[in-house]
Please model this.
Amino acid sequence: MAQPALHAQAVEAGYAGRSILRGLDLAVAPGETYALLGANGAGKTTTLSLFLGFVQPTRGQVRVLGADPVVDAAAARRQLAYIPENVALYEHLSARENLAYLLDLAGQGLGRDAIDAALARAGLDAAAHGRRVAGFSKGMRQKVAIGLALARRVPVLLLDEPTSGLDPQATAEFSRLLGWLRGEGVAILMVTHDLLGAADVADRIGFLDQGRLREEVAASGAERFDVRALHRRYATAGESA
Ligand code: ATP
Model:
């Protein structure tokens, strides 16, 4: 792999002396979609926090397109959009106003046309651009967050449980959007429990087990992944504990 978009090497990290990541090695290339699966508490969200610079490694190295989140968290975060399971927005503002405000805060102010174009590209209906987000569904909120990432032109997306609570149609729409982002060269690291969804969109699936990658499986051939074999591995993750 040339320079990975996301790179963790032999990372040990945790909270208040409690070790969570124990020798994590993970690399995601530009234009690659990587799904990270694993049991509750395996350290998936901690891995995302590592790249954002919210959790600092006690050993090993972390890089976001060459930037070290420990030394310069702002440089790392400029390259990233983090989309949590429940996207927080300013409820009394419209989708368009949320983007305008958040882009201004990021020092990347854009005009209305560019904002509308980003929201449309993220799949939000034009009729919703000017509506208060208070009434938005989870899927619509996610589109606003992805619209923001598109407007910021970030090369890396971190997604935490993006499809939990989405109906099948919204999930399929979301998968298509990820496919398009991948084609644009965006690196995507998604944390999920949705094995089928992961098999649908990911280039590689990694199983995190007690803070390290137990196994990585790459898509190959027309079938991409052997989902039954993946399920067996997923269901037994953690049994070696
Ligand atoms: P899940 O699938 O349940 O979301 P996960 O794999 O994302 O799990 P993490 O959220 O990374 O797991 O949590 C790993 C462990 O670290 C858990 O035991 C959790 O309780 C603990 N932990 C997470 N965040 C903190 C924190 N801010 N302070 C202390 N402990 C934390």
Summary: Residues 15, 20, 38, 40-46 surround adenosine-5'-triphosphate (CB under 6 Å). The CA atoms of residues 21 and 47 lie 8 Å apart. The first strand starts at residue 6 and ends at 15.
